[in-house]
Specification:
- This protein is an alpha+beta fold and about 200 residues long.
- The chain has 5 helices and 6 strands, in the order ααααβββββαβ.
- A hairpin with a 5-residue loop joins strand 3 and strand 4.
- Helix 1 runs antiparallel to helix 2 and helix 1 packs parallel to helix 3.
Length: about 200
């Protein structure tokens, strides 16, 4: 006597229930780890029911739900993983931007910095002062602030002095001149006149 393919199977019923729960939970981050396990169990139970040829329709439906729950879980986890990775990259880039680690990229894409000539100015009262004009242009399409560290070195590469320019709240495309090395000791004036000035680091916020 042949087996009745419509005879009931506890495996098929259990697989269907687990499959439904798995599909529902598969859309919920973190919790969908359990959905994958439920989907795997549902898949096993559905296969057992199909092998025994009992509750075929229920077993097939459970099989489809099991695969769907597992597939959705993997897709959701990949999506969440990609999103977290992107956020992590953005946080890392922002930290590097603020610390000056991205100086080369910032100078290439975000800001133009032009260094003028070091000058020693003598007032009508015989007092001397110094300055190095630094022109800063925000090349970005939004308001930004930049911190620019500049150093002066002699012919041997020895550092003579350094200073930092703070270009705060520059509008998109805005240029502004700043004065650096205004507080230099007078005994360094002569050496700074022949020094080479270079940008050490640039940070942005």
């Amino acid at each position: 006597m042949g087996k009745d393919i419509n005879s009931k199977s506890g495996f098929a019923t259990a697989a269907l229930v687990l499959g439904i729960i798995g599909v529902v939970l598969s859309f919920i981050p973190i919790i969908n780890n359990a959905a994958f396990v439920l989907g795997a169990l549902a898949l096993i139970f559905a296969i057992v029911a199909l092998v025994k040829k009992k509750s075929i329709a229920t077993a097939v439906a459970a099989f489809v739900l099991a695969v769907a729950s597992m597939g959705t879980t993997l897709a959701m986890q990949k999506s969440v993983g990609d999103a977290l990775e992107k956020v992590g990259d953005e946080i890392s880039k922002t930290a590097d931007d603020m610390s000056g680690n991205n100086t080369e990229d910032i100078l290439k894409n975000d800001v133009q910095v032009d260094l003028g000539q070091f000058e020693v100015i003598e007032s009508e009262y015989g007092l001397q002062s110094s300055k190095l004009v630094v022109s800063v242009n925000n090349k970005m399409s939004k308001k930004k602030s930049f911190s620019i560290q500049i150093e002066a070195v002699d012919a041997d590469g020895k550092r003579l002095a350094d200073d930092t320019i703070y270009a705060n709240d520059l509008n998109a495309g805005q240029s502004q001149d700043f004065e650096a090395f205004t507080l230099v000791q007078s005994d360094k004036y002569e050496s700074l006149k022949t020094a080479t000035f270079k940008i050490v680091s640039v940070s942005k916020v």
